[in-house]
Amino acid sequence: MTRILIVEDDDAIARNLADFLRGEGFDALTVPTAAKALNIADGSFDLVILDVNLPDGSGFALCSALKGKLDIPIIFLTASGDEFSVVTGLELGADDYIAKPFRPRELVSRIRTVLRRAGKASSVFELDGLRVDTERAQVTKNGKEVFLSALEYRLLLVFISNRGVVLSRSRLLEEIWDVGGDFVNDNTLTVYIKRLRDKIEDDPADPKLIKTVRGLGYRL
Predict the structure, then answer these.
(1) CATH 1.10.10.10 holds for 124-219
(2) Where exactly does CATH 1.10.10.10 map onto the chain?
(3) Tens digit of each residue's pLDDT (9 = 90 or more) over 116-143
(4) For the segment 159-178, what is each residue's pLDDT rounded down to a tens digit?
(5) Cα-based torsion angle of the residue sequence 30, 34, 40, 44 in order, rounded to the nearest 10 degrees
(6) What's the Rg (C-alpha) of the chain?
(7) Where, residue-wise, is CATH 3.40.50.2300 in the chain?
(8) How far apart are CA 219 and CA 82, in angstroms?
């Protein structure tokens, strides 16, 4: 599981952000000061989310210290999107920044992008007995291997990459168009979603993984 260190002195922000990231499948730990961050930061963490303003110093100084100690991606949280903060953070080696107030899902998207660039993105996704190892292209359900067609597997990856997001049928069609040489239309999509549910749901008649959102589409 991807481990994220959140360095944020506002307890409410830190707690809510950590809870949200845990719900997205990350292991999140929070600390309120630069000193504590330096004390616990080690190779077990995959990414740091760092506030610019900390009670015991500048987030910029902490960024430099962490980069000197570890090869780890850093995303800055800044109270303002001013050019000086952005440029300073990036020049010190930060991988991205996001201004407060931010939309949690935008931050998650930034996190995943930075992890992919850094080669630290987890290749294993797990949810309710479903396990997908993208490096091996292997899918298991409750410990038993599930065999998917190329289009079924691509469809599952689209859902995993957009966990929690409602995906319209048109968006899904765009994502899986002509995978495996098959013609994909709206009716075909319905068939493949049913086939995928038959293979990964405990009860396909009452799906818990791929949910239908009436009038909008589907959500993992």
Answers:
(1) yes
(2) 124-219
(3) 888 766 667 888 899 988 767 889 999 9
(4) 887 778 888 998 888 877 75
(5) 70
(6) 20
(7) 3-118
(8) 36
Nearest CA to 22 out of 140, 133, 96, 104 is that of 104
Contact 45, 36 (CB under 8 A): no
CATH code of domain 3-118: 3.40.50.2300
- Element spanning 193, H or E: helix 186-200
Question: What is the residue whose two structure tokens read 């990964």?
Answer: 200
- φ, ψ of residue 76 to 5 degrees: the values are -85, 140
CB 181 within 8 A of CB 131: no
Residue 212 has pLDDT above 90, yes or no: yes
Question: Two tokens at 113?
Answer: 């992008």
- Both tokens of 121, joined, read 């993105």
pTM comes to 0.59
